Amino acid sequence: MAESQIELLLIDDDEVDRELVCRLLDSNHAVREAATAEEALAALALHRPDCVLLDYRLPHADGLALLPHFTRASLPVIILTGEESPEVIVQAMQQGAQNYLVKNSLTQISLLHAITSAIEKVALLRDVDEKNRQLRKLASALALAEQRERRRVSQILHDHVQQILYGIQMRSQLISLDVPDDERVREHLAALQSLVNEAILTTRTLTVELSPPVLQNEGLATALQWLVSHMAEQYHLNVTLEVSADYKGPNDDLRMLLFQLVRELLFNVVKHAGVSQATLSLQDDGENLVICVADCGRGIASADGASGSGAAGSGFGLYSVRERLALFGGLLKIESQPGAGVRATVFVPREPILLV
């Protein structure tokens, strides 16, 4: 079976230069020609080429201005130049061109090699991008599965294990009323009560850490009110809460994600800011649910500096948060200056669509 032809879009206003390029190509290449940027864009709208040969200088425009139209479409582009200019070459490569060729030294070998190489490079980049997308999708799916499993285990602890422990506690109290007044028996019962109380406290803590029960029955605003009290009690962080909106949607994964994100941001205040005050707001800008956590602490050198940080003991880094937010079409924006605190803002569409 004969190999399919490689389809090229040749963009050059000089007819002689176009003729030269066409003469150097073999029968495995089919060429569409364009003399202007307008003709090139019209040709692109009608047909997607395998590779673009783009003259650096065109009437009323230069090739670099046209280059983004092709790179955004993931098309391999080779720049054709009249002379070897390092500045033009660097600029073209930075904007996504795969190669450049100087017209005066153009040969069949160099042209065919450049075309083959450019197509292979872009194919490889597409493959890498696709693999990365698949990995991100898999990681996100695993993260959501972990989140759901945490909620399931939390439910078991709350609805079953704690009830069993409460039963043991009540039984031990009844036994203490029925047994003879024996000091050794009383000591054993007191030790049993102490162990049961410790087990109840441990399961309560685990339940809250895994998935606070308030999230399963209430809206996000109520859950954040609970979180504010929890941060004050456990970490002595006083958080001012301002609520002018709420999220009571059916998506439990999103509600849990937003709660964990706010907790992560507040933990970062505790761990890094060096202050005992923070503000937390929950608003609606008409299109998005907007959550903002701000402090007046030490700040960070750059917004990226916080992107991979994890909360104290939470294991839920902000990079992971960004990836999970993207599943719902959301984003996290962090603004900070050293000594001027941190302002972290979360935007989530009011009607999110899970992108997994």
Give a written overview of the molecule:
The protein contains ten helices and twelve strands. It is an alpha/beta fold and 356 residues long. Strand 8, helix 9 and strand 9 (277-284) form a beta-alpha-beta unit. Helix 5 runs antiparallel to helix 6 (183-210) and helix 9 packs antiparallel against helix 10 (318-327). The radius of gyration is 32 Å and the shape is elongated. Mean pLDDT is 85; it is low at 303-316.
The gist of it:
The protein has 356 residues and is of the alpha/beta class. The protein has 10 helices and 12 strands.
List keywords for this structure.
356 residues; alpha/beta; five-stranded parallel β-sheet; 12 strands; 53% helix
Overall shape: elongated
* Average pLDDT reading: 85
Task: Give the percentage of residues in beta strands.
Answer: 15-25%
The radius of gyration over CA amounts to: 32 Å
Helix/strand-derived category reads alpha/beta
How far apart are the first and last residues' alpha carbons, in Å? 40 Å
Q: Major β-sheet, in short?
A: 5 strands, parallel
Output the helix-strand order.
Answer: EHEHEEEHEHEHHHHEHEEHEE
Count of beta strands = 12
Detail the poorly predicted runs: 303-316
DSSP summary: helix tally:
10
Output the strand order for the largest sheet: 2-1-3-6-7
Helix content range of the residues, please? 40-55%
